[in-house]
Amino acid sequence: MIRPVPMKSSMYSINRFLDSEYGDFGFVVEDLKLFPSGRYLAVLVRLDDDSRFIHAFETGGRLLEGWEKGIPVPCADEVVMFPGKRELAVFTKCYTGEVKIYPIQSDNPESDALSVTFTRLPLYVNFTSLGRLVVFCDYKVEYFAPAEIEVIKIPTPSNGFAYLHSVKDTKDSLYLLYTFRENQKPRLELGMVPLPMFPYYSSLEFWDGVETLSKSSIVPRGGRHVGDIWLENGSFIAALGTKGGNEIYLMSAAGTKVALLPGELVFLSFTSRGLFVITGIYGGNLKAWLVPFDVINTTKKIKVEDFRGDAVLGRYVPGVVDPKFAGISMDGRVLYLGRSGGKSSGGTFYYFLRRDVDYLYRLEVSETPNRESESRVGVSELGPVGNKKGETAEKTGGTFLEPLLQRFKQVIIYGPPGTGKTYLALKTAKNAEFVTFHQSYSYEDFVEGFRPVEKDGNVVYRVFDGVFKRLAVRAIYDSLPEEFREHKNNAGYEDMKLAVQKFLEKRRKGKKTAIKPQREFYMVIDEINRGNISRILGELITLLDPDKRLGAPNETIVTLPYSGELFALPPNLYIVATMNSADRSIAMLDIALRRRFAFVELSPDPEKLRGINVDGIDLEHLIMRINSIIEQEKGKDYTIGHGYFLDVPSADDPRQALYLVFYHKVLPLFQEYFYGNWEHLRSLYPGFEFIDERGRIIRMNLDEFMDALRRLGGSE
């Protein structure tokens, strides 16, 4: 089943930013594109004077750095955006046409953009997933492009007409789904062109050289064609339908088959889960469906009952739902579906997105039993401490952090307070060693150092191993060959360390005995930014590199300064750390440390409070309202997490629980954040009645408090 959850907080943040930037000029959102990764959104804004600007956001609603001022689009004609993996290609159809390719993560994407121009306007342009620019145009059209951009020119046929429906590429091939019309007889074909492209000297030579993988004399008729291609492990599937039609044609090496739709086609796209389809029934609902790959590959004729999901996205109004305003992430978890309106300007008519409806959804998909293990996101070979390698995240309670840990070995979770950072860390690393860094925490606590002990009535100093060294010894011992593990599973810590020292000595001398980790070991460091990290880690900063761990290409074994013992990090030891972004910026962390950690941001998630209502107060809307005030004045790092309110609805008296949370957790933060700026705060946000002009908390009884919260939630 598919359950669409509107991402209201994301669209609220985006719309709030656009209102603050362009509200005085009058504007519409002319287009929006979702990136295949599902991480970013590109928004094309059109002002009343027909000027246009592009902004890029995370799907969580945060504006990307470098895109604050917007990228101006100096073209009054049609503009088409093509999101790629790390770039956004923008095709402007003014004069002879131009494509600009902007890096999505750049301090100045406008200055870092690459430009491709043409001598005549192309018929069709596409930007592939591998960063190639495909241009369908007259054979004589020339282009001018920088060396960094690979341009593939597809010539229009000289003896007929061709319409390209979809383009996909691999490292060495380009796949085309197209309709070819010759002598008034159309045929649907899926063709392949080897890359680099063979030299051709006429359009006839090009089309003769295209390898036809599948073809059909049955071509969808009617209006706008909607098509896509799926490539995986050398196999291919192509899908083509017509907006408003009742069937889809599926092409593969086995031939062409027809899929009968449970309604009129609105949108289709392949995802890693299968073919995703949106259909509508006139006078009825708009619905999302999924056809798994096993059904596509094994069923001769796909029937209505093969479509799974039946998720309602709203009422179906054919005139305002267009496949142009739709997109889905490659993993099938983020959906963009817009509703359009129309407007005339300068003698032309264009469509734009209506902003009064939800058009961004998180899709919660329940897989069928035989494909569940294949499609689950966040499953890796890693398990928490004590779990055998190969157990799934479903069995061990794993999270989406596991693939990151497998790749980078250590992760820092950062974000505002109350977003669940420590909870996520402990859920990922069950039974882990847990420490909290602070100003007094030292290398001697973490790795090793001298400690006073009493011996024969005197105080002497001995070297004691710290928590991280002890964990590393256990992890290495767990990976040793049997010849080094005399005590096997009954070994004490000193026995383990002795075996590990013998192993490291031989390994340092050149004996590269293979290690075979049996389990995974985790260290959770809470509030990592509160300690003097460089001093606490010492030489371990170097060892954190994955390529310097035992068994890696640049394996490094060091001698510790206090004990003189050998030390290394094994491949089965992982670090999960947390830091509060409101306490200290990530930019202030040591550069060497930042390079060795992967960073994961946890933002407030108001949707976790969806449907929770306390005496007429919607908690989801309340936290969005509070955070909009904080973010506007202080920045996103100072917002508050949904965790502050999660326990409110389960309390014996939810009203009293909300009162206590607000007065004893939220308002003290406001006092700290807005110290000395109270008049400004009250003038901008008249609904905020809890702090007076001198910064003092105004005490109210419970009924007065609830009334004030309702006014705050209703004030914009």
UniProtKB/TrEMBL annotation:
Residues 407-605 form the AAA+ ATPase domain. It comes from the Archaea. Pfam families: AAA_5. The keyword Nuclease applies. Keywords: Endonuclease, Hydrolase, Nuclease. SUPFAM superfamilies: DPP6 N-terminal domain-like, P-loop containing nucleoside triphosphate hydrolases. GO terms for molecular function: ATP binding; ATP hydrolysis activity; endonuclease activity. InterPro entries: AAA+_ATPase (IPR003593), ATPase_dyneun-rel_AAA (IPR011704), Methyl-DNA_Rec/Restrict_Enz (IPR052934), P-loop_NTPase (IPR027417). This is Restriction endonuclease.
